[in-house]
Amino acid sequence: MGPLIGEDGVARCPWAGGAGVMRDYHDEEWGRRVHGEAAYLERLTLEAFQSGLSWSTILNKRPAFREVFHGFDAGAIAAFDESDVERLMQEPRIVRNRMKIEAAVTNARASVALRDAEGLEAFVLGFAPDEPPAWADTTEMATTSVESVALSKGLKKRGFAFVGPTTMYALMEAIGIFDPHLVGCFRRGSD
């Protein structure tokens, strides 16, 4: 399926056709570059929490995630202990999954450790594809790539968790490492 024209007359990727949080995310954020450690850690964390759930669930809970994870300040999250994990397990405004919460803490600690090298942003950007995809139809779209597999392995070697190749591919799309919009979508090539 190619881009769909919404009730507003605009062609978009098919998953963003109707008004609401998904279309807003598509139009304003998805595929746009972000900058800074906190922005990268937020997207990495939210992609991990999204695994097995709908993205709209995560988007609706994002304000609470930002609050309880201190704006995704890696240093603040890295200082979390078991009592913080237990507190988050009781927080009904977020996804309460112990493995994902613990992975968020682990990844914050690994992000802090990366500061002594190139940092999280530069590390992730180092896996950008030489030949970005340009799909015209959803049947052409991939869920992993050579680069997402390599990014997954690289992050795991540096102590990150819950960073599988599919999750890393979704991260690469979300943060604009390449333009994920279908050819014909109004957002394709806009950033």
From TrEMBL:
Top-level lineage group: Bacteria
Source lineage: Bacteria, Bacillati, Actinomycetota, Actinomycetes, Propionibacteriales
SUPFAM superfamilies in alphabetical order: DNA-glycosylase
Annotated source species: Nocardioides hankookensis
Listed name of the protein: DNA-3-methyladenine glycosylase I
Pfam families assigned: Adenine_glyco
